[in-house]
Amino acid sequence: MADITHWADVVADEVLQKGKKHLVATGITPSGHIHIGNMREVVTADVAYRALLDKGAQAEFIYIADTYDPLRKVYPFLDESYAQHVGKPLSEIPCPCGEHKSYSEHFLEPFLVALEHLGIRPRVYRADELYKQGLYTDAIKTALVKKDEIAAILQKVSGKTPAEDWSPYNPVCNVCGKINTTHVTGFDLDAETVDYTCSCGDQGTVSMKGGGKLTWRVDWPARWKALGVTVEPFGKDHASRGGSYDTGRALAKEIFEYEAPFPIVYEWIMLGKEGAMSSSTGVVVSISDMLKVVPPEVLRYLIIRTKPEKHIKFDPAQPLLNLVDEFERIHSMDEPGSYESRLIGLSHAAGICHTDIPFKHMTTIYQAAGGDFDRIMNIVSRSGYNTDNEKCIKELADNVGNWLEMYAPPFAKFSVKGELPVQAASLSDAQRAFLSSFADILAGSGELSGEDYHNMIYSAKDPGSELHIMMANTSGVDPVEMTVEPKDLFKAIYTSVLGQQSGPKAGWFLSSLEKDFLIERFRKAANYRP
């Protein structure tokens, strides 16, 4: 690649024109499984934050969980008992599994664990706590006083006319606990209270500290000012003309007297042929599930290699291996360009495990070892890889095992047969001659690498090679006249070991198995006459 400036550095350069001190913010509503489509926002924020630090900025990075948003409906992954909670703030709804303090924590906690695995460590805020602590109180007062001005701005920018009884603030009903069924009837700035009526029949008063929340289009700009946000990524839905960023920018300037943060607009991650990921439709691959099957630095690479304004196609099956291959190829460059070096640098993060074992090779090692970690370590050592960091090797092995179980296509899977497969009966005389000769050469050789095995098999084409001559002698054919097709030799290997005509990369595969096992198996296959 030519030396290109990475998009995160372009963003940082533009942001730094506005000053040296910055707060990068990101936030997601934990209403369902937080998926890798959501991850694009957080990784985008993280790399922008890191680029700012690299350029000498005084930067901070925060994550706001919108835990005070209402549950909007009974999603497909919930049982019907949650119908009674629709309209209540997520932080005030029981946990679906009973192991977390609330509905919002049920989805938020595994996401925060996933962020740690990705080397992303923002300061975390929960919206319900911010409201209850009074962070929004001044903004609530301003919004209630300037209600008509806000409504006029919303109509002008979005083209939508707010209802006559619209309010920028939604109280939480003291009786039914819902936040989307109340209407403001009055407020007291000195007492910091809001009066309301609710469709459930209740009339009451709530404190501005936690008794409700601002509507989304008002909450967002209020948050920018309250926290001091200067940079924020968000999805293209918010960036549409007249959308929530346009209204937020106008409200920030005209109501809250604050400059809107620098926007980083990102496109969606598309899941295979199923379209954009969405928690509400169930088209998701959760970050937690994805971290079970692929190293975290590869997930970071998936996001940072593509400019935010371009959509990303993601398929956790066979195409995932192509993604890993691409990452490993760049990672192993002897003299990477500045752009490639930046890609790798932003993919890494403190605390992320890394080994020199290719993912694809581990798929072979794992299956050759039957998933047994002691055997995996023996093969890794025999293959010449560094075995000092056993923890990272275990993580990679677990990734591969989970990928094979959850997403791998059938053709990527294999199992070494404990006994000679019956399919060996189909071997031709030439294939038997190859296996017999190959076994004899192995018996007289030392330990072989994957490359040694690969080269030895291909040498069978050369009339002057030891393997070619031995095959000819076994077959009673003049070596010069004998022709050899390597594809038939590979088929003989896979048939005798796996009981199928294809398999993983032969060199890696053979080097993953004990040489004595191969010698015995090839000789049995060569002599098998059912």
From TrEMBL:
What positions carry the motif 'HIGH' region?
A: 30-38
Recorded GO MF terms: ATP binding; lysine-tRNA ligase activity; tRNA binding
> Where is motif 'KMSKS' region found?
276-280
Kindly give the InterPro entries that the UniProt entry links to this protein: aa-tRNA-synth_I_codon-bd_sub2, aa-tRNA-synth_I_CS, aa_tRNA-synth_I_cd-bd_sf, Lys-tRNA-ligase, Lys-tRNA-ligase_SC_fold, Rossmann-like_a/b/a_fold
> What keyword terms does UniProt attach to this protein?
Aminoacyl-tRNA synthetase, ATP-binding, Cytoplasm, Ligase, Nucleotide-binding, Protein biosynthesis
One example of a Gene Ontology biological process annotation: lysyl-tRNA aminoacylation
The record's annotation in PANTHER family points to:
LYSINE--TRNA LIGASE (PTHR37940)
Question: NCBIfam families given for it?
Answer: lysS_arch (TIGR00467)
Protein name, UniProt field: Lysine--tRNA ligase
Say which species the protein is native to.
Methanolobus halotolerans
